[in-house]
Write a structure and sequence with these properties.
The chain is mainly β. The protein has a domain at about 5-30 and about 55-140. Helix content is about 5%, strand content about 50%. The longest helix has 8 residues, at about 160-169. The N and C termini lie far apart (about 50 Å).
């Protein structure tokens, strides 16, 4: 019998700056294959055809006012901000803790400054549209997506390599 690994703690880095003790929450991007239904002559029903990946978005909540992050808003580059999240997951069954690193690149499309009230906690929520995502578990890259460079790696297999090889001729 096993127990689930759950998040014990997390840290965020941007431009080498650690946000340990400041990061309050990280909402990971949803990973989804874009599909379009197709039904041709003689088919009994529709099948979903692979049309690439859906757009990715992540949200970072900071427990405080972080000027350096606010200054990243409005970037004219699709790669306006690069973040590295480091998380520790542990199961209470004696297995060692698992290190999970998440690398994201994109731009902040929204900053929700929330409400400010003297004596209350301050939280700012940063939403980022992503062009890059990489998930590393215990030092092994499990997934990497680079929307601009045409990389779609899962478990060490580049699922888009054949297409890029054709395009690069």
């Amino acid at each position: 019998m096993g127990l689930p690994r759950t998040l014990v703690n997390i840290n965020a880095y941007e431009s080498g700056v650690s946000y340990l003790g400041v990061i309050a929450e990280f909402e990971q991007p949803k990973l989804a294959v874009a599909t379009e239904d197709y039904r041709g002559g003689g088919m009994v029903g529709a099948v979903p055809l692979d049309k690439g990946l859906e757009k990715m978005e992540a949200t970072l909540t900071m427990a405080g006012h972080e000027t350096a992050l606010i200054r990243k808003f409005g970037s004219t580059s699709v790669e306006g901000v690069r973040l590295r999240l480091v998380a520790a997951y542990r199961a209470d069954d004696g297995r060692p803790a698992q290190a999970v690193e998440i690398y994201i690149g994109g731009r902040f499309t929204e900053i929700d400054m929330g409400k400010d009230k003297p004596g209350d906690a301050t939280e700012h929520k940063y939403t980022a549209a992503l062009n890059y995502y990489r998930r590393v578990v215990d030092g092994r890259t499990e997934m990497e997506v680079d929307m601009v460079q045409g990389v779609f790696m899962v478990n060490g297999i580049d699922r888009y390599a054949e297409i890029m090889a054709i395009l690069m001729g």
